[in-house]
Amino acid sequence: xxxxxxxxxxxxxxxxxxxxxxxxxxxxxxxxxxxxxxxxxxxxxxxxxxxxxxxxxxxxxxxxxxxxxxxxxxxxxxxxxxxxxxxxxxxxxxxxxxxxxxxxxxxxxxxxxxxxxxxxxxxxxxxxxxxxxxxxxxxxxxxxxxxxxxxxxxxxxxxxxxxxxxxxxxxxxxxxxxxxxxxxxxxxxxxxxxxxxxxxxxxxxxxxxxxxxxxxxxxxxxxxxxxxxxxxxxxxxxxxxxxxxxxxxxxxxxxxxxxxxxxxxxxxxxxxxxxxxxxxxxxxxxxxxxxxxxxxxxxxxxxxxxxxxxxxxxxxxxxxxxxxxxxxxxxxxxxxxxxxxxxxxxxxxxxxxxxxxxxxxxxxxxxxxxxxxxxxxxxxxxxxxxxxxxxxxxx
Length: 395
Ligand SMILES: NC(=O)c1ccc[n+]([C@@H]2O[C@H](COP(=O)([O-])OP(=O)(O)OC[C@H]3O[C@@H](n4cnc5c(N)ncnc54)[C@H](O)[C@@H]3O)[C@@H](O)[C@H]2O)c1
Known about the structure:
N-(1-d-carboxylethyl)-l-norvaline Dehydrogenase, domain 2, Rossmann fold
C-alpha cells in the first residue's frame, strides 16, 4: 500500500484550511493550492494561527512548535506543478461539478501514477467527478464536517470505480488526522449515493418541517408556538434552528434532494417566499424571527408561548429511523452502529437507532399516518423498518 507523505489541499477556503491544519498536525507535508496568492497567503496565516492556538494550549506534543510544523507547509497557485511529487490531493474547491472534474483531471495528468484524488464534496457524485480523469480507481470521497478541527466525523466514500486500495488508503489517512475535541470517527460509505450517510439521514426531516411551517402559516399560528412544541427536547425549536442554519441553505438542500431522491423534498411555500424576499434567517437579521436585537428576546417569546401541538419531535426521529433503514437497505453502510456513531460525530446529536430498536412498530404507524395526512409518500416506512429486520444489522 502506498505510503502517504505529501498532500495537496486544493481550494483553501473554510474547509480546505481546516483540512490542511489537521494534515499538518498529523505530520504530513502539505501544499496549499488556490487560485491566487492572496487566497493562499490568507489561508497560510489562518492555519498558522490555528496551530499556534493548539501550541498555547500545550496540544502539539513535547518540544514541537508552530514554526516546526509550518516548515512542512508549502504554497502554490499552479495545481499541475504542485502535484508532481504528491501522494494525495484532498479537494475542497467550490461545489461545481465542472471545476471538480477539471481539477481531478489535472491531478491525474500531472501527478505520479499512484496519486489519489479525494473530494470533500457534500453533494456531488464521486463517480461522476472521477469519470473522465483517466484513473477513476484512484478517486474517492473524503467528506469532512465544519469546523474540521472540531468535528470528529469524516466520511470516506467509495465511488463506483474506486479501488479497494484507494479506499483503504483514504480510510488510513482519515484515521491519522487529529481532531481537537473528542475522538476522530471515520465512517466508511460503501455506495456513492446523495448525502452519503449523515446528511442523508437528516435530510427528510426537512419534508416534515416544510409541512409544519406551511400548515402554521395557513392557520395563522405564530412561529414561537411551533418552537414551544419542541419545549426543552431540542437545544432550539425548528424555526430558530432553520433561522440559524440559513433559510437559503434549507431551500438549496431541498432542491438538491428533490432532484436526486424524491420530488417530496421540494421546498415548502414559507421558506421559498422567505428566500425570495431576502429574509434568510439570523445572518440577514430576519427569517422566522427578527434577530436584530439578538437571541434573548426570541428565547423569551418561545418560553412564554403556548405549544401549538403541531411539531412532534417523535415524528422527526421516526423519519430518521426510516432513512437510516434505507441507508442499510441500499448497502451504503453495513450496520446501524456506523450510522448512529457518524451522526453523533458529524452532528453532535444521537442517531435514531438507539430509541428506534424499541419503537419501530409504533413509529412505522406514525409514518403511515404522516404520509396519509401530508400526501408525502416518502414518509412511508421501508420494509426494513417495518419488519424490525435492522435490529440484527448492528455492525
Ligand atoms: N462549508 C461547509 O460547511 C462544508 C462542509 C462539508 C463539505 N463542504 C464542501 O467543501 C468544499 C469547499 O467548501 P468551502 O465552504 O470551504 O468553500 P469556500 O468558498 O470557503 O472555499 C472554496 C475555495 O476554493 C477555491 N477555488 C475555486 N476554484 C478553484 C480552483 N479551480 N482551483 C483551486 N482553488 C479553487 C476558492 O478560491 C476558495 O478559496 C465544497 O465542495 C463544499 O460542498 C463544505
